Amino acid sequence: MTSKAIQANSVRRRRYNRRLVLAGAGASALAALGVACGDSNGPGAAQSPSGSKAADRKKITVVDAFEPANYFDAGGGLYAIREGVAEGLVRVSFDTKLEGALASQWEQPDPTTWHATLRQGVVFQDGQPLTPDIAAFSLKRLAEANWAPGGFGGAQVTAEPDGITIKTADPVPFMPAILADGTAIVLTPQSFEGDSAATLPVGTGPFKLTLFRPHDHREMTAFDGHWAGAPGVSAVSYLVVPDAQTRVNQVRTGQADINRIVNPPDVPTLQSDKAVNVLTQSLPRFRGLFLNTQKPPLNDPRVRQALAAAVDRKAIVDSVLEGLSEVQTALFRQDFPWANPAFAGIGEDPATAKSLLAAAGYTDDRPLAFELWTYSSRPELPDIAQVIQQQLAAVGVKVNVQVKDIAVVEQEAFAGRVDMTLIGRNPLFLLDPQSFYESDFLSTGSYNFARYGALDAEIKAAATIIDTDARYDRYRAFEQRIINEDAAVIVLNSYLQIDATAANISGYRPHPTDAIALTPAIAKQ
Amino acid sequence: MSLVRRLTFDLGILVAVLLVATFLAFVLTVRLPGDPATALFRARFGEGVPATPERLAAIRAETGFDKPIVVQYTDWLSDAVRGDMGRSFITRQPVFATLVERLPATLILAFGSLAIALLLAIATALIAMRSRAFQVVILGLTQFGISLPDYFLALLLVLVFAVKLQLLPVAGWGSAAAAVLPMAMLAAYPWALLSRILITGIATRQSQDWVRTARAKGLRERIVLTRHVMPHAMVPVISLLGVLGGSALSSTLIAEVVFAIPGAGRLLFDGIAQRDIPVVQAALLTQVALAVAVNKLAAFSLPLVDPTLRREAF
Q: How many residue pairs bridge chain A and chain B with CB atoms within 8 Å of each other?
């Protein structure tokens, strides 16, 4: 079933289209067998290579644009999980659900307590068994770190005979999502001894890190003692290749087996190459225009709604993204459990846009003019800004586009000096919407481009709702309010992860949240 | 001026240049538009960890961004003069060790490509002297080499020799084959420039009295060209080599990015983007020291090829 899923997600020698994305998403959903809160063999076992003998296994080369600063900090854990070096108690499955990794199950005995039972028979890459003490050690370290996810800072973590218990000051209903986050990886205590720059982390993942050279490459060998089975490849050479065209050429010539992050313009070339498979996957990350809700005249919701109605999302996808994206109006993809299936955002309607502007007092005699800021480290954003500029001009709104460094955009936008900001935003670093609403829509939020603050009490209250369905209902209401009534952000489209593999690679597929890249299932013929 | 005094003077100039350059780099890196603590935080933690005021304050305290810039600089300088270049703000790796690890690739690329360019330029100039037709063709080719953007040339070379013919690797480092395309790309511009200078230099010296005398003595044209004309024509070439070689870290950057070579140029570039001050400072120190050293080497080499300069050399 897995190979069919991968084939369904493959667009080799075919023009990518929307049906393929849907087919890929559907196949991914069918392929995964994880359960939301219990034991699962997960992607490793579901895709385990069928009877690859150790002697037959080959080394693969992966090329990627991104790299961790190290594997220890908050940002590094994400890479450790993605590259199969380390694992947390919980992980995000290939059907975007939380499933057991190092924990076989978890429960919430009371509102401020979580208990996780450890999976039996797990060993670290250095041979020592995973014990409750070691799991507690890693999580205590996180609880004391200043980059602990919201709700986990200051948590009391204790080792129990069968697992660990986490006690928090306030209820944290989304604790399993935190335990799946990169910050919550479990490493051996020895990983933290000595010079962190010279020490290689030892985790439980299917690949053991043997070399880490920042800005260059890392080497890994297969860890045959992995609880889900031995990997289908003997080793991985993971290279940092910043130039997208170089990565494309490497996979075309067989010098790389997996190319992560293909630029849309390179897709036709790769599709025409019989030696290469192109794989796509919609990600939670979206491109959106955040409107400064505090700055006149954007503090008038009618003006913001008018701008939302003036934007033609499909034209942006077709013209700038070459069709390699999905039009999106909601903050979250519809396949997430907190999404509202009936949600309809403000669609393109220039007549409504003009009448809203007129109602707000802005006509051809009194036109509006705004500054739109964006950045070029995501290269498509300045082009999208130009299209938006033309679309808003059609309803009489003048837009001056400014392309700056991301650090400048953030500084100025958070200080309230920017009218509108076009950014790429991943709302699901944690597989739960709470942290996204807190960072982006609380008035004190650290990523509040919209300078939004109308739902402060409600968002804070949602964090403590134990009943999951009731909590998700709140999120649906927030989305309706933020997108439609307050029009604080105009969501434009979703990001599409495009990867390419050599035709003799099997078992690789992009993950729906990009949480996992290297699994034991990958094999090279 | 005696040799000792000359060297002392040069050393003094070098120290002054290093101080000014590192201070300016420090100020510019910290004062780039945008909050340096936020840029550093993003480089270290990514977008997934909220950059709360408390976390940014911790970054500022750790890096010294919360101190006046002069204090930050003098702190760095006092460590640097004791040989402690610090650790990268991002990777926490010792900067000196990282630089030592990555400098060889950059130096091989920079000086290897210059050596190839020089040899090819001499050969090209000698061929050009054979006939007017050769000169026209070669001037056309060198015009191509001068005007072709590096990045475009790199893609062209990769497409032909790595993708189509599959003779050479697309990217990477560590083998002679992997070095061919980046060296070819880097050699193209200096080859074209040096060839033109040499051709012009030879042409203008052909009519000099001492050349006529050499010919009148009955020397063969090849001897006249290689022994009497070429050394004089090499003077501006050597000066230019000093300038080109001195900018190794910046000149190899595109090759390091396109061919995924772990060199010092990329280290400097990434360091500036991420406000990784210790890395920027160490790379810049190396760049300035290299520039001064190569320029001095060029200056000392001139009298070796042009006897008329020997009396003034020291």
A: 126
